[in-house]
Specification:
- The chain is 73% helix and 1% strand.
- The protein has helices at residues 2-29, 32-54, 57-70, 75-87, 93-110, 112-128, 130-134, 136-150, 164-170, 174-196, 199-203, 211-244, 268-297, 300-319, 326-332, 335-339, 363-379, 383-396, 403-414, 417-434, 441-453, 461-481, 485-494, 498-513, 527-530, 534-561, 563-569, 575-607, 631-659, 663-680, 691-696, 703-726; strands at 350-353, 356-359.
- The protein is globular, with a radius of gyration of 31 Å.
């Protein structure tokens, strides 16, 4: 009887909890901006993915035609057919790439047994080497891995299918970046807004207004995020299927190229389900972190900065760490790894701490426990008490400060601008550190010729070019006549420099014909300074994200509390206060641009001996400019102009924020109009998407268009604020 009473009570509490969750769910989705932003992010994610599919359109038709022939063959017949097609030497790029894709898929099916045998062979060979045989820890580690793959029984068929669409779905990660931004928005709507306007404090005084209400809000945020991730995955799968056709989900996951190391006997459908579950776990962890940060900080900026730090560390540990022990923990049990399909289900690793071996699956319950611990921290926090402590601390101060001081304190301390600044600088520093300038064979030998003949065109340069041309022609003639394999190989190696020599000779002639300064520059060494690279794109993206989270918040606090009306009636509440607000944001954006330029300068100066005094017109991107301005002066002047352009954008967005009534909608608009086009421009071949990047990174912009846009923005900002002051 007692047990029945308990069960009835649990059932009653469960029904009330479901009603509370449904109430929070309806309250969230009654906000029209939530539906608009979710649909906008789904549309952007699908658009970017379609752009990535379009980049491979040249190989699309040939790839599908090849699969129509090979899908009905056995493995040996498909391999023989592929060899026959490769011997034909297709001249079209699309056919060439399609054959490469098909080769990877055939090798994935044919070489899987050889892969498993190689694991067993490595283990057996290590036993024959006395050094490894005596190392009990290493021996146990290799035996565990070998045993795992030896006991693996693949029951699903190994099928040859057009897997490129599935691979592109697995390898696409833009939707996760959008999911993190969406998470910040949801946490702001569900938690931060109610904490700011006092509704959260009121909710704690009513029945079920404490832990039950907190759990309902957590379920609402997490459920919305899961809906977005699943909907994005289904959209991507639909687009991939439309382009590449259906694939059989009952085929073994090991038959997909790059997935032969999966240590489980799963088919493709099962793998997708488990992969989705792990993504849900990663999303649950990020949701807990975001909610905890929002409860303790009551700030979108601090929440965004905290999530940026968490994801930055996750990406860093995923791509950089490769050791054992603690490094292996961060590399394997990794949030970003779970999102981008480098999770624990794709291969088998054992964590080793000395002679102690730990299964990688142990990370799942540890992650769940850590997530609930973080949620408990967030649920126990009381924002009202925190505000009282700040009040007591401020009351003790004796010295009075000006308005500019309080605006700076509000932005950098209370809104968490200092955390966002540190997070953005760290991400940019990692991007600069990881970026490596690609130098092909021709560029390598071109730089070698500059070192050999000199970077200044003199009277002797023509003679050196003529002598080298005669030498290379003699080697080519000798190569055509020889039949000795060893000599043929040696001559081929010597003639690798032909492309670099041609570039050196063509660049020399072009400089003389265009009457430019006779200075030969190593183009690739100046790429990060002036070119369109991942470094410059990341700088613009981080700057736009900073605009989105900082500028609306500077003006929103006064609107929420009603202080804006009082400020406008005071002596300093008009234009002077507005200038102070703009100044605080400028003291964030301008140093950020300067720090990014300084980090690039330090790295390039350390790596290369750059010709800072050489004319910038000798570089290909400035070839049309008849100017004698030096490389160093161009770089410094460009950075200064970038700061000016950033200031103009800040003034314009500040004018928009002053008139806007919804901070979150303005944040979404800034992200959608500025940050998202920069991200899309790398995937979608539409020239109009790069306008924000070209405006904020002036080295790739047209100076006249840049000046015209800045002038228009300043005029519009002036008219908007003038009308506001008049009202």
């Amino acid at each position: 009887m007692y047990i029945c009473t308990i069960l009835m009570e649990v059932k009653s509490k469960g029904k009330k909890m479901v009603k509370l969750i449904l109430y929070e769910w309806k309250k969230l989705w009654k906000n029209a901006s939530v539906l608009k932003i979710v649909l906008l992010f789904l549309f952007l994610s699908g658009l970017v993915f379609q752009g990535e599919l379009n980049q491979d359109r040249e190989a699309h038709q040939a790839y599908l035609e090849f699969h129509k022939v090979t899908d009905y063959m056995n493995q040996k017949e498909a391999e023989e057919w592929l060899l026959g097609e490769q011997e034909k030497e297709h001249s079209e790029y699309g056919a060439y790439m399609a054959l490469l894709y098909l080769e990877d898929e055939i090798e994935a099916v044919n070489d899987y047994d050889a892969y498993r045998e190689s694991i067993q062979n490595r283990y057996q060979q290590s036993q024959n080497i006395s050094v490894f045989a005596k190392d009990e820890g290493q021996n146990q580690y290799m035996r565990r891995i070998a045993q795992k793959y030896k006991e693996l029984e693949i029951k699903a068929p190994m099928k040859l299918q057009p897997y490129q669409g599935l691979l592109k779905v697995f390898g696409f990660y833009v939707q996760y970046i959008l999911a993190i931004v969406l998470l910040i928005y949801l946490v702001s709507v569900v938690f931060i807004q109610e904490q700011r306007n006092g509704k959260m404090d009121f909710a704690h005084t009513i029945f079920r207004g404490g832990s039950s209400l907190f759990c309902a809000k957590v379920c609402t945020v997490y459920g919305t995020l899961i809906i977005y991730l699943n909907a994005a995955f289904l959209i991507h799968m639909a687009l991939a299927i439309r382009m590449y056709g259906f694939i059989s989900m009952d085929a073994a996951i090991q038959s997909v190229p790059g997935f032969y190391s999966v240590p489980y006997a799963w088919n493709i459908g099962t793998y997708i389900i488990v992969y989705g579950v792990l993504q849900g776990l990663a999303a649950f962890f990020l949701t807990a972190v975001a909610i905890c940060l929002s409860r303790w900080s009551v700030s979108e900026v601090k929440t965004a900065a905290g999530l940026t730090i968490v994801m930055g560390w996750s990406v860093f540990s995923q791509s950089i760490m490769n050791g054992e022990g603690i490094e292996a923990v961060f590399r394997i049990w990794n949030v970003w790894g779970a999102f981008v399909d480098k999770s624990i289900i794709k291969n088998y690793e054992v964590l080793r701490f000395g002679n102690i071996l730990v299964e990688q699956n142990l990370g799942i319950p540890i992650c769940i426990a850590a997530t609930f611990f973080i949620l408990i921290l967030g649920g126990r926090h009381c924002p009202a008490e925190r505000e009282k402590k700040h009040y007591r601390k401020e009351k003790k101060g004796k010295r009075t400060h000006g308005l500019f001081y309080y605006e700076m304190k509000k932005l950098w301390i209370y809104q968490g601008g200092i955390l966002l600044f540190a997070a953005c600088i760290c991400i940019q520093a990692i991007t600069i550190y990881q970026y490596k300038t690609y130098i092909g064979t021709d560029e390598f030998y071109y730089q070698r010729y500059i070192d050999k003949f000199g970077n200044r065109i003199t009277a002797e340069t023509d003679n050196k070019i003529t002598e080298e041309k005669i030498r290379l022609e003699r080697l080519e003639e000798e190569l055509y006549q020889t039949e000795d394999f060893a000599k043929n190989y040696k001559l081929t190696q010597e003639l690798e420099c032909l492309g670099g020599f041609q570039k050196y000779a063509e660049r020399t002639n072009a400089l003389l014909e265009n009457e430019k300064a006779p200075v030969l520059l190593k183009d690739r060494q100046y790429e990060v300074l002036f070119g369109n690279t991942r470094v410059s794109q990341m700088m613009v993206i981080l700057l736009c994200i900073s605009f989105a989270f900082l500028i609306p918040g500077v003006y929103q606090k006064e609107k929420e509390t009603g202080m804006e009306v009082l400020q406008n009636t005071s002596w300093f509440g008009g234009r002077k206060l507005w200038r102070f607000k703009i100044g605080t944001v400028l003291l964030y954006c301008v140093p950020f641009v300067l720090f990014c330029a300084a980090m690039i300068f330090v790295k390039e100066k350390k790596l290369y001996d750059l010709e800072w005094l050489a004319p910038v017109g000798c570089l290909p991107q400035y070839w049309g400019n008849q100017t004698e301005i030096s490389v160093g002066f161009t770089f410094v002047a460009g950075v200064i102009i970038q700061c000016i352009v950033a200031a103009v954008v800040v003034i314009f967005l500040s004018a928009c924020a002053k008139r806007a009534r919804n901070q979150h909608m303005l944040t979404g608009i800034i992200l959608g109009v500025m940050a998202v086009p920069v991200i899309l421009s790398s995937y979608v071949p539409v020239a109009g998407l790069s306008w924000v990047y070209r405006m904020l990174f002036v080295f790739t912009a047209d100076f006249k268009i840049e000046a015209a846009i800045c002038f228009i923005l300043v005029i519009v900002a002036y008219l908007m604020t003038r009308k506001e002051m008049a009202e």
